[in-house]
Amino acid sequence: MSEEQQPESTTNANQQLQLMSREEFKRFVKDVRENRIFVSAMIPPEQIESVMPMVFMPLALGALSEASPDFIKSIGVVWEYYSEAVPMGINGYPMFMSCRFMHKLDWERAVSAVSALEMSDSALMDEAFDGGG
């Protein structure tokens, strides 16, 4: 699945944020590890309120204005592919004219998956360095 095939998250007043399919989840984790995706969790908590709408311009322009409270509560992170960034940035961050929303349950699974894969990579490198691989 290419970047273009990843589903865009859009909102309307009655829409529910869907969980990713297994393939979408695997693609997301792979692309995060390859540094192809920017996620709102990369913004320090003290800067979220002021910086996030400038990084993800649809938020500043009311992308969530008609979203239900349940939809908003279900958002784990806002994200987008770096390839979708506009040429300018803000305060050292990329700027996007589009964004995607990830369900908080998917985000929890993604954090766990990335962490486990990084630990596995580290163990494999240690084993190879020590001559066991």
Q: What structural category do the secondary elements indicate?
A: alpha+beta
The rounded Rg comes to 17 Å
Low-confidence stretches: 7-13
Overall average pLDDT: 87
Strand order of the largest sheet: 1-2-5
Percent of residues in beta strands:
15-25%
Order of helices and strands: HEHHHEEEEH
Q: What is the tally of helical segments?
A: 5
Helix content: 40-55%
Shape: globular
Biggest sheet statistics: 3 strands, antiparallel
Count every beta strand, where a strand is a DSSP E run of 2 or more residues. 5
Total domains:
1
- Distance between termini? 32 Å
Written account of the structure:
The protein is an alpha+beta fold and 133 residues long. It has one domain (3-129). The chain is 42% helix and 18% strand. The protein is built from 5 helices and 5 strands, in the order H-E-H-H-H-E-E-E-E-H. It has a 3-stranded antiparallel β-sheet. The chain has a two-stranded antiparallel ribbon with strand order 3-4. Strand 3 (85-90) and strand 4 form a beta hairpin. Helix 1 crosses helix 5. Mean pLDDT is 87; it is low at 7-13.
